[in-house]
C-alpha cells in the first residue's frame, strides 16, 4: 500500500508540473470578443413552470428541445400520481420508479435538485443524498447553515455527489460571491457555487466579476438575463435582451472550461402561464453566439477531468494529458494518437496547438482509412503539417509532401495557434489563426498514393526533440 501511495504521489507531481507548464502558455487576461464560445448543455429549472405540475413541465420542456431538468422540491406531480404527491426527497420507492418512467417516456434526465433544505442532521442530509443516488442526479443545490459544512463534506466524499450553494438576492446570506468562496475554498472540490446570474444582478453584483471570483468552484449556473441591473424587482427577459451581458458570461465560462449545465430559470410574473416563447427566443440567441454549435468535443471532459477515452495510440512514444486543463503533450515518437471512436467523411476539424520551439515537428492526419497496424497509413491519408522551421510542402500549414501553404500566419513558439481544417469531398481548406493558408483539390501526390472518402483523425508525435501541445479539439460533420 505504501508503494502504491508513493507511485500515486509521484504521478500527481509529474502531472502537476505538466499542467503548470501548460497553464504558463495560456494567454493572460480575458479577451471576450475573440473567445470561441463552446456549446454548454442546457437544463431547465422546473421552477420556470411552477404554475404547472411536474408531468406537465416535462411536456413543456420536451417541446422546447431541452433534454435535462433541475427539479425543485414541492412541485405537484400530477399526471396520474396521487392527488397530494409532490416531487421531493420523501418520495416512496414506487413513486420514484414511476417518476423515472415518466422521464424516460419524455426523453429527459434529471441532473440536479434544488434549492432544497437538507436539514441540520446527518440523518436528514443523508436522506437527500440517498435520493440523489436513487434518481441518478449528481448535484444538490442548497443554502447550508454555518454548521452544516462538516457533514456535507463527509457525505460528498461518501456519495460522490456535488453540492452547489445557491445565491438568492440580499438579505440572503449567500447573496455575494465572496461569502460562498469563503465557505468552500478549503473544502472538497465537489462543493461549490450554484451561480444565479439574475439574483447577483438584483443584489447589484456584476455576474462577470462574480464568476471570475468563483472560477474553479462553479458547480451549477442558474442562467438568467434581466431587464435592469441593481433593481430588486427586475424581471427576466430572453437571453441577449437584458443587461446581463450574456455573450461575455458564456465567454468567461468557456475560458474557465466550465463543464456543468446552463440551468434556465425564467421568472417573469407576466409570463407565469406561458414562459415558453421567451425561453425559446433566448435559446435561439444562445445558438447564434455559440461558436462550436453542432461540434463534438472529441477530447472529452467528464466530472471535471479530461480523458483520452475514445483515443488509441499506434507506434513509438505517447501523448501525456493534463487531465485538469485538457492539454495533450507529445512524448517521443514517431507515433500516432488517433480517435478510434468514429470515422469521418466530410468534416470541419478545429483545434489549438503550440510548439515547444520552431523545430517542433508534428501534424494532423485526415481520413486514415483503417485501424493503424503499420506505418502504411502515411501513404493513404493526408497530413496537415506543423513544422515552423520547414519550407514549402514541409512547412506549417502544408498538406505534407503535396501542397505548400499560401501564407505563414502562425504565432512563434511557444504561443498557441488555432487551426481550422475543412475536408469536403476532395477539397482541403486550412486556416491558421483565421488566415486561409490552404485551398486545394486533393489528388495523389508526393508520398500519397491514394486517399479514402472516409477515415479516422490522428495527431502525430514525431520525435523527442521538441514536443507539440494540443487542446480544444472539436469536430463537426458536414
Features:
8-stranded parallel β-barrel, 10 helices, elongated, TIM Barrel, 25 strands, 8-stranded antiparallel sheet, 478 residues, Jelly Rolls
- Write down the CATH class of the largest domain: Alpha Beta
Mean pLDDT across all residues, rounded? Answer: 94
**By CATH's scheme, which homologous superfamily of the largest domain applies?**
Divalent-metal-dependent TIM barrel enzymes
Major β-sheet annotation: 8 strands, parallel, barrel
Terminal Cα span:
51 Å
Low-confidence stretches: 1-16, 23-28
Number of strands: 25
Helix percentage: 10-25%
CATH architecture of the largest domain: Alpha-Beta Barrel
Question: So how many helices?
Answer: 10
Total individual domains? 2
Global shape: elongated
Q: How do the strands of the widest beta sheet line up side by side? A: 1-2-5-6-7-8-9-10
How much of the residues is beta strand, in percent?
Answer: 25-35%
Instruction: Find the CATH topology of the largest domain.
Output: TIM Barrel
Protein structure class: alpha/beta
What is the CA-atom radius of gyration, in angstroms? 25 Å
Amino acid at each position: 500500500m505504501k508503494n502504491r501511495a508513493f507511485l500515486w504521489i509521484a504521478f500527481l507531481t509529474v502531472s502537476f508540473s505538466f499542467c503548470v507548464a501548460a497553464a504558463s502558455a495560456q494567454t493572460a487576461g480575458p479577451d471576450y470578443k475573440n473567445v470561441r464560445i463552446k456549446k454548454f448543455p442546457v437544463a431547465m429549472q422546473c421552477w420556470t413552470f411552477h404554475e404547472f405540475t411536474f408531468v406537465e413541465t416535462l411536456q413543456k420542456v420536451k417541446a422546447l428541445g431541452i433534454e435535462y431538468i433541475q427539479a425543485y422540491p414541492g412541485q405537484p406531480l400530477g399526471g396520474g400520481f396521487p392527488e397530494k404527491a409532490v416531487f421531493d426527497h420523501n418520495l416512496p420507492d414506487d413513486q420514484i420508479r414511476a417518476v423515472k418512467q415518466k422521464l424516460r417516456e419524455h426523453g429527459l434526465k434529471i441532473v440536479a435538485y434544488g434549492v432544497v433544505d437538507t436539514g441540520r442532521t446527518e440523518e436528514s442530509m443523508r436522506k437527500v443524498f440517498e435520493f440523489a443516488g436513487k434518481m441518478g442526479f449528481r448535484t444538490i443545490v442548497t443554502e447550508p447553515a454555518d454548521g452544516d459544512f462538516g457533514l456535507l463534506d463527509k457525505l460528498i466524499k461518501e456519495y460522490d455527489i456535488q453540492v452547489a450553494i445557491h445565491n438568492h438576492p440580499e438579505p440572503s446570506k449567500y447573496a455575494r460571491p465572496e461569502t460562498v468562496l469563503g465557505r468552500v475554498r478549503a473544502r472538497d472540490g465537489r462543493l461549490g457555487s450554484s451561480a444565479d446570474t439574475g439574483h447577483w444582478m438584483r443584489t447589484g453584483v456584476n455576474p462577470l466579476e462574480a464568476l471570475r471570483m468563483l472560477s474553479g468552484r462553479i458547480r451549477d449556473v442558474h442562467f438568467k438575463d434581466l431587464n435592469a441591473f441593481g433593481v430588486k424587482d427586475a424581471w427576466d427577459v430572453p437571453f441577449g435582451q437584458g443587461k446581463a451581458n450574456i455573450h461575455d458570461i458564456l465567454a468567461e465560462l468557456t475560458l474557465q472550461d466550465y463543464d456543468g449545465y446552463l440551468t434556465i430559470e425564467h421568472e417573469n410574473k407576466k409570463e407565469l402561464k406561458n414562459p415558453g416563447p421567451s425561453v425559446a427566443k433566448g435559446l435561439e440567441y444562445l445558438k447564434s453566439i455559440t461558436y462550436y454549435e453542432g461540434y463534438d468535443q472529441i477530447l472529452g471532459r467528464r466530472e471535471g477531468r479530461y480523458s483520452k477515452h475514445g483515443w488509441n495510440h499506434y507506434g513509438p512514444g505517447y501523448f501525456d494529458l493534463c487531465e485538469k486543463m485538457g492539454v495533450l503533450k507529445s512524448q517521443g515518437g514517431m507515433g500516432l494518437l488517433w480517435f478510434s471512436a468514429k470515422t469521418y467523411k466530410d468534416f470541419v476539424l478545429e483545434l489549438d496547438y503550440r510548439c515547444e520551439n520552431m523545430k517542433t515537428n508534428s501534424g494532423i492526419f485526415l481520413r486514415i482509412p483503417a485501424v493503424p497496424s503499420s506505418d502504411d497509413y502515411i501513404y493513404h491519408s493526408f497530413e496537415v503539417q506543423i513544422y515552423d522551421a520547414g519550407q514549402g510542402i514541409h512547412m506549417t500549414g502544408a498538406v505534407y509532401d503535396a501542397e505548400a501553404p499560401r501564407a505563414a500566419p502562425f504565432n512563434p513558439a511557444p504561443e498557441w495557434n488555432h487551426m481550422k481544417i475543412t475536408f469536403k469531398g476532395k477539397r482541403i481548406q486550412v486556416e491558421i489563426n483565421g488566415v486561409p493558408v490552404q485551398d486545394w483539390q486533393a489528388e495523389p501526390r508526393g508520398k500519397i498514393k491514394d486517399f479514402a472518402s472516409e477515415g479516422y483523425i490522428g495527431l502525430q508525435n514525431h520525435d523527442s526533440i521538441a514536443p507539440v501541445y494540443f487542446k480544444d479539439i472539436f469536430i463537426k460533420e458536414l
